[in-house]
Amino acid sequence: MTCKWVLLISVLICVVVTFLYIFFMHYCAFWLSWISVGLIQCALIGIGYFSFAYRKDQIELDEAFADDSMATYLNWITWLSWIFAGIYYIVIICNFYSLRVAVAVIQTTASFVADSKRLMFIPLLYFFITIVLATMFIAGLICVASIGEISVESYSYQTKDVIWSASTEYMFYFMCFGFLWVVAFIMAMNEFVIIVSAITWYYSDKEKPDDDGIPGDSDITTGMWWSIRYHAGTLAAGSLIVAIVWLIRIVFEYVAKKMEGAAGNNGCTQCLVGCIRCCLACFDRFIRYINRNAYIYCALSGESFCSSALNSFLLILKNAAKFGFVEGIAGVFMFIAKFFIAIMTTLISYFVLNAMVTVNSVYSPLLVIFLFSYIIAGIFIEIFDTGANTILQCYLLDITVGLCNDEHIPRSLVKFFSTQEIQEAMLKDKVAESNTPLMEGNNMA
Question: Is residue 90 part of a domain?
Answer without folding.
Answer: yes
